[in-house]
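Notes from the pairing session

We agreed to fold both candidates in a single pass and log them together. This is the raw record for the first candidate, unedited. Please don't reformat it; downstream parsing expects exactly this layout.

Candidate A
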Amino acid sequence: MSSTDIQHHLQCTIYTEAGSNFNLSCVHLGLRTNPRTNTIGARKDEITKIELQSLPENVNTFVSLGKMFYKEPKSKIISDFEADSKSSKDMLEALQKKKKYLEKTLKDAQDNLRDFLHHAKPQ
């Protein structure tokens, strides 16, 4: 193996490791900052859904929009809330899959670099 091949292989491995590390930190940030991806947010969603369902059908329900409120039927609020909860769960699952993939990619890159440095003997 020529020295340019060795340099190219080493450079590709280092870039892969750096890119995976950066993407993994972005995924961790996304998991921490989204309020619906933690257990407290999920519990709050569940309690809100139970409270909405316990209301009688003829009660006036309002949704906040900035500094104002607008009237919505209870069924519409519940269906919107369930759709938001489902999309949050889907996003959480996607982030967790991406996290696992990036962790595996990072570990493989580190292992490749370790093996490369271990087998590279000074000549």
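Candidate B (folded immediately after A)
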Amino acid sequence: MSRNKDGTFSVGTSGNPAGRTPGTLNRSTRLRLAIEESGDELIKVLLENAKAGDPAALKMALERIVSPVKPVAEPVTFELSGDTLTEQAQSILKAIAQGELDPSTGRQLLAAIADLSKITEVDELQKRLDTLEKHMSEKRQ
């Protein structure tokens, strides 16, 4: 094995010239195959331990069986007050502060207003660009 003066291998030379034998499985593949072979037995032991009160086994079993619970907000009717997006956002914050609107729903409404402001901004920029292009083409003629 030849190395350069800086200790690296010369081009075309490696530290393992023979390389890995074709078909050799890496550690994670061997582990996965071993688990697959005894999967039913492992599940049985896990469930037995969970039933016996093992908190770690119970947690693992429940995490695999039960989907995570997501908060579900009931539909609300809400009047946005204000002419501008800023005023409408302020009305949402006020409703949250007064307990008329739950914070999760309020956060979603504020995010929707933020998204709308971005869309509005793009629309306004497009209109301005169209106006400028029209003005420039009229000047050229």
